[in-house]
Write a structure and sequence with these properties.
By secondary structure, the chain is of the alpha+beta class. Helix content is 15%, strand content 35%. It contains six helices and 16 strands. This is F-box domain-containing protein.
Length: 260
């Protein structure tokens, strides 16, 4: 890892001649203030940032505090390629290829297995994924942190179907949405298995973190009819998807317009 010589030069001069070191106890290296370390770390490429966190305990604490904030790391990163490894590596293993370093890193991500998930979107270093129950998760492939997003059944078009034991085993998808009137009029929903709903429901998702409040907003574009839903949370706690907005799609330009 290379830190900036202009910064380090203010705190550490050239090393003394070797002969002057004989018989003397080494003096402790001066430490940078945590706020300055944080400013420096925030400008590093991710591989260098991870390495910096392993130098010593004080650097580790600054690194840990920095990575816990969704948008505190300010450096625009060189794009990386995330891909599955061979099946023998395990269901939770993935590889991240760094274009900046021209090398691959093996990652171990938390459950549900990354191999079985669908990627719905990626923003600010986080992946937005859908598991085999069509539930959404935010996962940071570098730190391994994960946030469970509100359940798919909080979308007003989705209703759970329970089996005899009271467990959800299918989903109903209502178009445009479920209402008592729609059910009374005999409108029939589409029924999907747990792992099939995501194939039709999800189109794209985006993450918008707020570093001042350490909260985030997830914007989900989904069927039917290119609906837009929002979920807001802080830390690992989030509310249901709500505030749905209707849309109109222009087939010739492929532009989607929101209708409030």
């Amino acid at each position: 890892m290379g830190l900036f010589p202009s910064v380090l030069g203010k705190f550490r001069g050239d090393p003394p001649p070797m002969e002057n070191m004989v018989g003397k106890s080494p003096e402790p290296e001066p430490e940078l203030p945590p706020d300055m370390l944080s400013s420096i770390f925030a400008l590093l490429e991710v591989p260098d940032l991870v390495r910096a966190g392993s130098v010593c305990s004080s650097w580790r604490s600054v690194y840990t505090a920095l990575r816990s904030q969704l948008l505190k790391h300010k450096q625009r990163q060189t794009p990386c390629l995330l891909y599955h490894t061979s099946e023998s590596a395990g269901e939770n293993a993935a590889c991240l290829y760094s274009l900046a370093e021209k090398r691959a890193y093996k990652l171990t991500l938390p459950d549900p297995p990354i191999r079985s998930r669908y990627l719905i979107g990626s923003s600010h270093g986080w992946l937005i994924t859908s598991d085999e129950r069509s539930e959404l998760h935010l996962v940071n492939p570098i730190t391994g942190e994960q946030i469970v997003l509100p359940s798919v059944i909080t979308l007003e078009q989705v209703k759970p179907v329970f089996d005899d034991e009271g467990s959800v085993h299918k989903y109903e998808l209502w178009e445009p949405r479920y209402t008592a009137l729609a059910e009374f009029l005999g409108h029939e929903p589409s029924v999907y298995a747990l792992d099939e709903l995501r194939d039709y429901l999800y189109l794209k998702a985006y993450l918008f973190p707020d570093p001042q409040t350490e909260s985030y907003i997830v914007v989900l574009i989904h069927n039917p009819e290119y609906q837009i839903s929002f979920a807001q949370g802080q830390g690992t706690v989030g509310g249901p998807f709500c505030h749905q907005v209707g849309t109109i799609k222009n087939a010739s330009t492929r532009m989607v317009y929101c209708m409030q």
